[in-house]
Amino acid sequence: MNPSAVIELNCAVSLANAGQPVESYQQLLKLEKALDAYQPYYAARAELEAQLGDQHSAIASLKIAIKLSQNNSERDFLINKLERLNTPQPQ
């Protein structure tokens, strides 16, 4: 039995939570075609890109996730994350 793309997404996120963000991101990228209209895919991708220090890609993924959001609470949460990424952090 082959797992669905959503199950594979959950497994990839689990890898990141287990301290393997690079491997997780590699798994996520393989799912893009199957999940190209699935908001949680882009939200998870943005989170990993931010963790990996790729702010530009994280911002782009968050913008897609926001566009795909179906409810205001979810959209507001993602917009808040986007604003934080766009705000320069003190060093």
TrEMBL record:
InterPro entries: TPR-like_helical_dom_sf (IPR011990). This is Tetratricopeptide repeat protein. It comes from Paraglaciecola aquimarina.
